[in-house]
Automatic annotation (TrEMBL):
The gene is mur/alr. This is Alanine racemase. GO terms for molecular function: alanine racemase activity; ATP binding; pyridoxal phosphate binding; UDP-N-acetylmuramoyl-tripeptide-D-alanyl-D-alanine ligase activity. SMART domains: Ala_racemase_C. It holds the Pfam family Ala_racemase_N. Catalyzes the interconversion of L-alanine and D-alanine. May also act on other amino acids. It comes from Flavobacterium orientale. It catalyses: L-alanine = D-alanine.
Length: 813
């Protein structure tokens, strides 16, 4: 991209403030953290529910950015150009429309309820031998993601593949002119994301707006869609049963293979595809339709389809050998996604040492010399200490990289593996599919057993924002990360929360806080239950103790005085009815006297905890606690010459007692995707998914039994799968013997017999599956709530009971 501000200003109907309207723009950014921001960046200050781009302007100017699109009142600066607009998101979209018009290449536009990203990635793979393709990175399909994707087009591209996703009405009409698709694909219309639409008709109509100017629409023929299609639209349809479709397809699945029997232009032929689930079959068919439309012959189609692979759509963060952290992006290596991965690497901030393992890059649309120069600039900007290149081409450009090491082949790399000394660093592994970098990942990955708890960091962000939206803008948030983040991983979550600028973290014991501080967490941390023996460590690590008794206060003061501390932050807890920890009213005056007589500590906040915030049957009691808290805290504040932060509400308090938000709330279980209120639950996203695999499958005959004590007896021939997870991992024995189930290939498999220490057995008689298949133990289905209810306990106990030997993997979508 090379544009001049002068040309951009009228496109955005912007008011210009600055001296250099002739400034050259070579890239666009919305992310203040990106190391790719520079003096040719046009930075759009977007305003989101949680972040406002305008607040980063000064920081960005210091980093050399000098062109901003803004909508708020800003302080003008010398040598900085501001384009003032009504709405910065609209301006970004206008910019993308303007930019897109400069290219007249064919563009495939994909929308639908499911499968958009997979169809896009597969088409990219299938068509890449013949085209220089620009595609949306990952699942960039939103009002922001689509413009950013389109802005990646350059002169060398001769085909675009972009996906567009919408969540409510009037969104698609904004995306259509940005994508300007010439070929449309409607993957399907399911019930996903229905909240934003009044009904199915409205949703279909909205989605179809993407296709108003296409030369052809590819879709699965279907009466409810046909009803809304304008007669002008040229279609190319397929169907399993409607003879009016252009292509008739029947499929037959055996084991892990599916055969498509296709009738097209009066000829019949077969295609074999390496998938057996319905969703993948549908996605492959859409790809095949595009290949037909592009007039590929059947042999070529068969050859390419046979190589399709399941798509890893996300960057996975994994624990590596020798205290390394791996960012696994081993399935793609294009320029766009490299940029994203490098930004992700930066945000991870795990280790200061960083290594990039990179394969040859394809389809950049740039000549190799320029491509690798640009990669090298990015690598330098992102402070990557070493680059390990693998591939013929990148080897030829070794001299572009400082500290570059290159290997012509993966085998060559593997034979030198031991000399490369991977340790105490973050390693980004990024390779084109045919380099099979998953082998490198598996070599670098710390080996544990096959059961993992996957934590969706996006879901945590979503849930945080859900509760934030319930708060007054000035209410602060403390997030409870006690008990290893309710079993979800303490440090990684704390890091994310720090990024999202929550105000406080809360832990139960000093050790938990120390671990966070030692890993570089800078947020203030309150310790709920500081033992007297840990006061020294608390002070040393700048943790902030909750003080709940005179005994605790006096012994803390004694230690703090010896260290000559002044104004050390402490938190005073009152007991207002929970009767667990806290000062009672009768000790209030003595507490006040002690606090007034010392400058050693300062009351940072005053808190209490509710006993029944989740149960509206006890609403009266909740109100009583609020009243008592107000009385006690007001009395204390009266006597202090400063105003501490007051806080009372936990997650269900936030939902049920919004009037008592005070200065801060303490969010716990809600962050991890669990609500005590079923109507609220549907707005939260599942954070943790406990997964395992099938170790072994066997068939037993009628009359045979399974497991200890022969508690399951087969009444017919039964297929049994063994899964390596047991009560030592946190799966209760009471979940066995027909009570609980796991999910395999989207179907319920009941647990038969008793849960063992490290294993359990399930009935898979009617489920197509093989050894090695994935098993969902806990997540969307069965959910933590469901399991808790069946086992007569609460979700808290289930979550925190998942044992520490289960490896945690964190990912973002
Ligand atoms: C655990 C805890 C919370 C958070 O409770 P949730 O119900 O998980 O939101 C808040 N305050 C205190 C004192 C706690 O111990």
């Amino acid at each position: 991209m090379s544009l001049v501000l002068n040309d951009i200003i009228p496109q955005l109907q912007a008011e210009f403030f600055g001296n250099h309207s002739d400034a050259i723009i070579s890239n666009v950014s919305i992310d203040s953290r990106s190391f790719q921001n520079n003096n040719q960046t046009l930075f759009f200050c977007l305003i989101g529910p949680n972040n406002n781009g305008h607040t980063f302007i000064n920081e960005l100017i210091e980093k050399g950015v000098s062109n901003f699109v803004v909508s708020e009142q800003i302080e003008l600066k010398e040598n900085v150009n501001f384009l003032k607009v009504e709405n910065t998101l609209v301006a970004l979209q206008q910019f993308a429309i303007f930019y897109r018009k400069k290219f007249s290449i064919p563009v495939i536009g994909i929308t639908g309820s499911n499968g958009k990203t997979i169809v896009k990635e597969w088409l990219n793979f299938l068509l890449s031998p013949d085209y220089n393709i620009i595609k949306s990175p990952k699942s960039f399909n939103s009002q922001v993601g689509v413009p950013l994707s389109v802005i990646g087009i350059n002169e060398q591209h001769n085909l675009g593949i972009f996906e567009a996703g919408i969540s409510t009405v009037n969104e698609m009409q904004k995306l259509e002119p940005i994508v300007q698709p010439t070929i449309g694909i409607l993957t399907n219309i399911g019930s996903a994301h229905d909240e934003g639409f009044e009904n199915l008709c409205q949703k279909i109509k909205e989605k179809l707006k993407l296709f108003q100017n296409v030369s052809v629409l590819i879709y699965n023929k279907n009466k409810s869609i046909d009803a809304f299609l304008s007669p002008e639209i040229n279609t190319f349809s397929w169907s399993e049963n409607d003879k009016n479709a252009d292509v008739l397809i029947h499929h037959k699945t055996t084991n892990n293979q599916t055969t498509l029997n296709i009738t097209y232009q009066n000829t019949c032929f077969k295609l074999n595809i390496p998938f057996s689930d319905d969703a993948s079959i549908e996605n492959v068919i859409h790809c095949v339709m595009v290949l037909f439309y592009f007039k590929y012959d059947v042999d070529t189609i068969q050859n390419r389809i046979a190589l399709l692979y399941p798509i890893e759509m996300r960057l996975k963060v994994k624990k590596g050998i020798n205290n390394t952290t791996l960012i696994d992006d081993s399935y793609s290596s294009d320029f766009q996604s490299l940029k994203i991965a490098l930004d992700f690497l930066e945000n991870q901030k795990m280790h200061s040492k960083k290594t990039l393992i990179l394969s040859d890059i394809f389809q950049s649309g740039l000549a190799n010399d320029e491509l690798y120069s640009r990669v090298s600039q990015m690598v330098i900007a992102n402070k990557i200490g070493r680059v390990i290149g693998i591939g013929e081409t990148i080897s030829n450009y070794k001299n572009k990289f400082l500290n570059g090491i290159t290997f012509k082949t993966q085998a060559d790399f593997l034979s030198h593996f031991d000399t490369l000394n991977f340790e105490n660093e973050t390693i980004l592994i990024k390779g084109a599919r045919n380099f099979h970098f998953e082998e490198i990942v598996s070599l670098l990955e710390e080996k544990t057993h096959e059961t993992v708890l996957e934590i969706n960091l996006n879901a945590i962000t979503h849930n945080l924002n859900f509760y934030k939206a319930k708060l007054k803008p000035e209410t602060k948030i403390m997030v409870m990360v006690k008990a290893f983040g309710y079993g979800n991983g303490g440090f990684e979550i704390a890091k994310l929360l720090e990024y999202h600028k929550v105000d406080y973290l809360g832990v139960a014991f000093a050790d938990e806080g120390i671990a966070l501080k030692n890993n570089g967490i800078q947020l203030p941390i309150m310790v709920l239950n500081p033992e007297t023996t840990s006061f020294d460590a608390i002070i040393q690590h700048q943790l902030e103790p909750e003080i709940y008794s005179l005994r605790g206060l006096n012994s803390f003061l004694k230690i703090a005085k010896q260290k000559f501390l002044k104004d050390f932050p402490i938190h005073i807890k009152f007991d207002t009815g929970m009767h667990r920890l806290g000062f009672e009213e009768e000790h209030l005056e003595e507490l006040i006297a002690v606090l007034k007589s010392t400058k050693t500590v300062k009351v940072k906040s005053i808190l209490s905890h509710m006993a029944t915030s989740d149960d509206l049957q006890h609403k009266e009691f909740g109100l009583l606690q609020i009243e008592r808290f107000e009385k006690l805290s007001n009395r204390l504040i009266e006597e202090l010459d400063y105003k501490p932060i007051c806080h009372l509400l936990n997650t269900s308090g936030i939902s049920n007692f919004p009037q008592a938000q005070m200065d801060m709330v303490r969010l716990g279980i809600g962050l991890y995707g669990i609500s005590n209120d079923t109507s609220e639950q549907k707005y939260l996203e599942t954070v943790g998914t406990l997964k395992s695999i099938i170790s072994q499958i066997r068939t037993i005959q009628k009359g045979e039994s399974v497991g200890y004590g022969r508690r399951f007896m087969a009444t017919q021939e039964t297929k049994i799968a063994t899964i390596p997870i047991g009560y030592a991992d946190g799966i209760r024995r009471s979940w066995g013997n027909g009570i609980g189930y796991v999910t395999i290939n989207n179907q319920k498999a009941t647990i038969v017999g008793s849960v063992c220490m490290d294993m359990l057995m399930v009935d898979v008689t009617s489920i197509p599956c093989v050894e090695g298949n994935q098993v969902i133990i806990l997540g969307e289905n069965p959910s933590v709530n469901f399991m808790a209810e069946k086992l007569n306990t609460i979700p808290y106990e289930i979550l925190t009971g998942i044992s520490q030997r289960v490896k945690r993997i964190f990912y973002r979508e």
